[in-house]
Design a protein that fits this description.
86 residues
């Protein structure tokens, strides 16, 4: 999976298509749905204006929190991991 919003990608690891790796979560093997969530998370974070700190209180925060939860992360931890890869 590629994106026109971020450089982060997801790569299928098996022929059945349910084992995936995402560039900003390199030590994890994800399901297809988790990979889609991870790429969508990265796209959304990339779309937030640079002058806005990603923090609780922003309108997008509850959405980021839900997606991060699907990945077993807090939104703050997911943002930190994502930003550590850029």
């Amino acid at each position: 999976m590629t994106s026109d919003v971020t450089t982060h990608t997801a790569t299928r690891l098996d022929c059945d298509g349910d084992l995936w790796e995402v560039t900003w979560l390199p030590d994890r093997v994800l399901s297809r749905n988790e990979a889609i969530t991870a790429v969508t998370f990265a796209e959304t974070v990339a779309s937030v204006p640079a002058e806005s700190d990603l923090r609780p209180g922003l309108p997008v925060w509850p959405v980021l929190a839900a997606w991060a939860g699907e990945l077993g992360l807090t939104p703050a931890a997911a943002v930190a991991l994502l930003e550590g890869c850029q």
